[in-house]
Amino acid sequence: MADQVLIYADTVRSPELRHEVPVGIGDPFLYAETNGTRHALTNVLEKKKLEDLGLEVHLGTDYGIDDLIKEGRKPTEIGHELALRACRDFGIEDAVVPYWFPVELADFLRTNGIELRPDLDFFDDRRRVKSEAEIAGIRRAQRAAEAGMSVARDMLKASEPNGDSLLLDGAPLTSERIKLAIGQVFTEHDCTAEDFIVARGEQGARGHDMGSGPIAPGEPVVIDLWPKDRVSACYADMTRTFVAGEPSEEIIEWHRLCKEALDRTIEPIEPGVKGRVLFDIACDIFEEHGQKTQRTKEPGESLDEGFFHSLGHGVGLEVHEEPGLGLLGEKEFIAGDVVTIEPGLYRQGFGGVRLEDLILVTEDGYENLTDFPYDLAP
Questions:
Q1: Of 105, 127, 149, at which residue does a domain stop?
Q2: Do 201 and 160 fall into the same domain?
Q3: How confident is the model at residue 1 (pLDDT cuts 50, 70, 90)?
Q4: Taking CA 283 as the corner, what is the angle to CA 279 and CA 284, rounded to the nearest 5 degrees?
Q5: CATH code at 111?
Q6: Which of 134, 162, 178, 321 is most exposed by smallest CB count within 10 Å?
Q7: pLDDT tens digits, residue range 113-164?
Q8: 210-247: b (≥16 Cβ within 10 Å) or e
């Protein structure tokens, strides 16, 4: 682990900083770790909030901001000079920073003798072990996801076929109507979501197509939800596929294969297992039944049918984070990881099936955080 860490960001947009400072602060500030002490250079509005978290809080007045203003310095120049003086006061000489650390500030600090080393893996890996507060937030977000999924399922179940579309309360049932109802549920659970997937028919085969339009009887509807808990800023993630009406034999078989892949790839999860191992288990199942996977595609081919994505990903302060569970999933699981398992099968112009659960890696195995049935029929 690095002895010195430096971050300049706000906790709303930076998961790296939010992991270290678990409160919402919308304005960027300087955060530093050195010799076991955590420092923050901020403004008086955030002082008490940060002190309550055990940080040593420093203000611009500690480093001569009034004199810099009198000199007629520009705001950016003042900010850079305050950061430099604070770093020298903290004893920062050679620090690890996130890969996105502001270039202009980095150039200024380096010019003045402070070494900065961007390290993506360092910050990704330290976020993998979730804190108790983060796990609690993920659980709340997951309950919100399940409540949203219940509303979607109930709307599909209550709908009636009317030619090429479904009707609910006398009006066409659309992806938009379902998404509106889900969003209201998220709000009631103190969660947010900028968007999520309710993809009908062929839209379900287009990966991250959010879905739109009227839903037809008998077509698969892929519903993928990733609400964010307001308090912790942590996400959940889950997917189910429904068919209101009579599904085709192909969809029934895809659903069966996805459920088998889900069960068999969850079962081995424990610390030390690599995501690639689980991905290979899913590929084995699909390939045995004639489905294409990333392992069977030709070099240079862009696969868009069969099982064309990874088996899953880490979830936390970002909905997609480490560790990966695909062809490049070589990182071993550690206790505290939260990962998705989401096998899927698709055909362009037709549709797809995906099932997704959220898994917490524990000291001796795993805990499935998802509590929702897998039935194809709503």
A1: 127
A2: yes
A3: very low
A4: 115
A5: 3.40.350.10
A6: 162
A7: 999 999 999 999 999 999 999 999 999 999 999 999 999 999 999 999 999 9
A8: ebeebbbbebbbbbbbbbbbbebbbbbbbbbbbbbbeb
CB 372 within 8 A of CB 146: yes
Do 34 and 90 meet the contact criterion of CB atoms below 8 Å apart? yes
What average pLDDT score do residues 159-182 get?
A: 96
Contact 82, 63 (CB under 8 A): yes
Are 33 and 54 in contact by the 8 Å Cβ rule? The answer is: no
Helix axes 132-158, 175-188, angle to 10 degrees: 140
d(CA 339, CA 353): 20
C-alpha to C-alpha distance for 38 and 361, rounded to whole angstroms: 28
Residue 2: its pLDDT value, please? 67
DSSP for 82-104?
HHHHHHHHHT-SEEEE-TT--HH
Q: Are 232 and 136 in contact (CB under 8 A)?
A: yes
- CB count, 10 Å around CB of 36? 6
Whether 377 is in a domain gets the answer no
Containing structural domain, residue 99:
4-127
Amino acid at 77: E
When divided into structural domains, the chain yields a total of 2
Rounded to the nearest 10 degrees, how much is the dihedral formed by the CA atoms of 59, 61, 63, 68?
130
Check residue 206 and report its DSSP letter. S
Domain ends where: 107, 127, 147? 127
**What is the chain's mean pLDDT, rounded?**
97
Whether residue 205 sits in one domain with residue 74: no
Q: Is residue 119 part of a domain?
A: yes
Please tell me the distance from the alpha carbon of residue 260 to that of residue 268, in angstroms, as a whole number. Answer: 14
Helix (H, G, I), strand (E, B) or coil at 9: strand
My answer on whether 320 and 219 are in the same domain is yes
Question: How far is it between the farthest Cα atoms of the chain?
Answer: 77
End-to-end CA distance of the chain: 49
Cα 179 versus chain centre, distance = 19
Q: What is the pTM of this model?
A: 0.95
Task: Judge whether 280 lies within some domain.
Answer: yes
